[in-house]
Amino acid sequence: MEKALKTQLYEVYKQKARMVVFAGFEMPLFFKDITPEHLAVRNSVGLFDISHMGRIIIAGADAEHFLNHVITNDLSTLAPNSALYSVMCNENGGIIDDFVIYRLDKEKFMMVSNASNREKDYNWLVKNAKGFNVKLDEVSDNVAMLSVQGPNAEKTLQKICSIDLNKIERFKCFPASLAGLEVFISRTGYTGEDGFEIFVWNAPLAKPDNAVKLWNAVLEAGKPFGIEPCGLGARDTLRLEAGLCLYGNDIDESITPLEARLGFVVKLQKTDFIAKELLQKQKTDGVKRQRVGIKMAEQGVPRQGVKVFNDRDVQIGNVTSGTFSPLLKYGIAMAYVQTEYAKEGTLVKLEIRNRLVEGKTANFPLYDPEKYGYKRLKFP
């Protein structure tokens, strides 16, 4: 059996957390438990180690042109110190990965990819870089990543930050000093909440002192707000409530961004990018299946692979992610269903433990955005 990889922060929490192997990395599943960690993020603030994710620097005179060729979104309007969410597709329109790209300056970008796709993404970029004046640098093992999420994330970090965080809009990124350490901060995250993702540049696996120092400093700064260190369990339930995809469950190379309802990151007005013609045709013709949220109306917790039926008990799709919502106190799911059943409020039945349990399709997020999530904070 192949030995599990470790992040820069492994030694900090290995005795404090329930550990699990995810995407080849030994990571915390939870510290206290999933529910209190989940609710800390929704109601106040939580801290995650996300150093298992991939970080690739793309630089050179053709960096923008090259990236616009391989991703579906459009980088041409992205200003320095800004970020955007995108996917890149194979020649058949299937999603190779979803990620956030940061523009560090005119000719320098950073792509942050899913942990499970670190090698695949890098190899895909190398394969398609022929003929472009670009340099690719995989820096994941030298850069640690922390995520501070929740309505009190800004107040927590402001106590140890050198700049005014209140002036930073969502999907903006900037260099700063945190607890005396030089870092790069992005107002992004994958929980549905306001928050920040922090890149600790000088934190190689062999000497992770800076990452450890910052982890401890953030926990100390967040004490007045009841900060909780959080594991993958809460990260999963939070992103599912928010309607954010998990690669390998909800999106993969057999699913196109239009089927996944990620059409907002597909900019067909661009001159050219991989799979453009196929996606243009799919948009014109329509898709046969779509990703939806499901709220259970009866008791039952849906899981990946559960069959979805219509009100006549005919199968119309499958669940790709499901859980019991710590916030809503009932079962929720993400699923692909035939397009005619994708409208919000459609009655569906899920086969849970050999019985059909009723639910309804729902738009994301599954929580009330007036009460939870970054939108309640009225960002531009």
Summarize the structure.
By secondary structure, this protein is α+β, with helices and mostly antiparallel strands.
What does this structure look like?
With 380 residues, the protein is of the alpha+beta class. The protein has three domains: 10-51 and 143-240, 2-Layer Sandwich (Gyrase A, domain 2); 55-140, Alpha-Beta Plaits; 288-363, Aminomethyltransferase beta-barrel domains (Elongation Factor Tu (Ef-tu), domain 3), CATH 2.40.30. Helices cover 19% and strands 32% of the residues. The protein contains eight helices and 19 strands. It has helices at 10-13, 34-43, 63-70, 118-128, 153-158, 209-221, 232-242, 276-285, and strands spanning 18-22, 25-30, 46-49, 54-59, 82-89, 95-105, 108-113, 135-138, 144-149, 173-178, 181-186, 195-200, 228-230, 289-296, 307-309, 315-324, 331-338, 347-352, 355-362. The strands form four sheets. The protein has a six-stranded mixed beta sheet with strand order 10-11-12-9-3-13. Strands 14-17-16-15-18-19 form a six-stranded antiparallel barrel. The longest helix is centred in the middle third of the chain and has 13 residues, at 209-221. The radius of gyration is 21 Å and the shape is globular. The termini are far apart.
